[in-house]
Design brief:
By secondary structure, the chain is mainly α. It contains twelve helices and two strands, in the order ααβααααβαααααα. It has a single domain, classed as Rhodopsin 7-helix transmembrane proteins (Rhopdopsin 7-helix transmembrane proteins, Up-down Bundle). The protein has a two-stranded antiparallel ribbon. The radius of gyration is 23 Å and the shape is globular. About 35% of the residues are buried. The C terminus is likely disordered.
Length: about 350
């Protein structure tokens, strides 16, 4: 029950139901993505390592971020720093997703810009290092509010005063937890949105423009049929990953835009139904990516079907199926087949 003692409204119930459905879809779909990469050696490529990093972040959205969002939406009584940490986790997962998408965009750019040197530049070790950076940097930047960049003038100050007072008085340390009550809007708008979401999105937009223009120029100059085929496959995979980026932008931009409107226009009010729609849209993005992979990337689609047939219908697992170990002998073509 919310901290104000009022009964949960029908709007809250509908929101919770939708969140539960999205969480289930996100968990099942992205676990399937990780499972597919583990089972199919043809998917163990630098690009797909980065896709796995994005899938793990989406799993965390379903397992961690959505339950936290539900608690915050209900304004459950919570200690200030517990509430602040919950808000930081939401920022960390968003930043991780955007950095994973940026790493994927850089990987695709290097692949088409340096087709001969790509294997030497983007090794498996460096791919895993990039995955580590995609998790380490958001963790550090996302926890900055815990170091003092928070809205401590109201709830935070109350928590500090109560923590230094007699231990018998603990009620004042617990307040209705909401994102706007603990997170500094300077951090949310200027640092998180403008710096860590909008700027990388613009960089990725520029990178994909370069990727597409480079591939088209190479296709125009290419005379060899095998090279043209490889470029077509590169173009197809780049289109798929650009679609993932576009869906991320469509799903994630509305919510920080609402936060920015409230920050720059204090008299403007975003209604609760619209706010809930923005939150649901941002979380729904975590459930969309596996669907995109299934329909657009053939190696994923084939592996998903093999998993279904083997584990759910009892058919025998066949390593001789398309895109299995035989693809390992194809060298540079291994990761281009989609």
């Amino acid at each position: 029950m919310p901290a104000n003692g009022n009964a949960i409204s029908s709007l809250d119930i509908a929101y919770i139901v939708f969140e539960a459905v999205i969480a289930l879809a996100s968990l099942s779909g992205n676990v399937l993505v990780v499972w597919a990469v583990k089972l199919n050696k043809a998917l163990r490529d630098t690009t797909f390592y980065l896709i796995v990093s994005l899938a793990v972040a989406d799993i965390a959205v379903g397992a961690v971020a959505i339950p936290i969002a539900i608690l915050i939406s209900l304004e459950v009584n919570m200690h200030f720093y517990c509430c602040l940490f919950a808000g930081c986790l939401l920022c960390i997962l968003t930043q991780n997703s955007i950095l994973s998408l940026l790493a994927i965009a850089i990987d695709r750019y290097l692949r088409v810009k340096l087709p001969v040197k790509y294997r030497a530049v983007m090794t498996h070790r460096r791919a895993w290092m990039a995955v580590g950076v995609c998790w380490l940097v958001p963790t550090i930047l996302g926890l900055l509010p815990m170091l003092g960049w928070h809205r401590g003038g109201s709830l935070g100050a109350t928590a500090e005063r109560n923590s230094s007072s007699s231990s018998s008085s603990t009620e004042g340390r617990y307040k209705a937890c909401s994102f706007s009550a603990v997170m500094s809007m300077d951090y949310v708008v200027y640092f998180n949105f403008f710096g860590l979401i909008l700027t990388p999105l613009l960089l990725m937009l520029g990178l994909y423009v370069l990727v597409f223009s480079t591939i088209k120029k190479q296709l125009q100059l290419s005379q060899a049929a095998c090279k043209a085929s490889r470029l077509q496959k590169e173009l197809k995979l780049a289109n798929t990953l650009a679609l993932v980026l576009a869906l991320f932008a469509m799903c994630w931009l509305p919510l920080p835009i609402m936060n920015s409107v409230g920050f720059f226009c204090p008299t403007c009010h975003v209604s609760k139904p619209i706010l809930y729609c923005g939150i649901l849209l941002s979380h729904a993005n975590s459930a969309i990516n596996p669907v995109v992979y299934a329909f657009k990337i053939k190696k994923f689609r084939v592996t998903f079907l093999k998993i279904w047939r083997h584990y759910y219908t009892g058919s025998e697992w066949s390593e001789s199926a398309p895109h299995s170990n035989t693809l390992q002998s194809q060298g540079a073509e291994k990761s281009d087949s989609v």
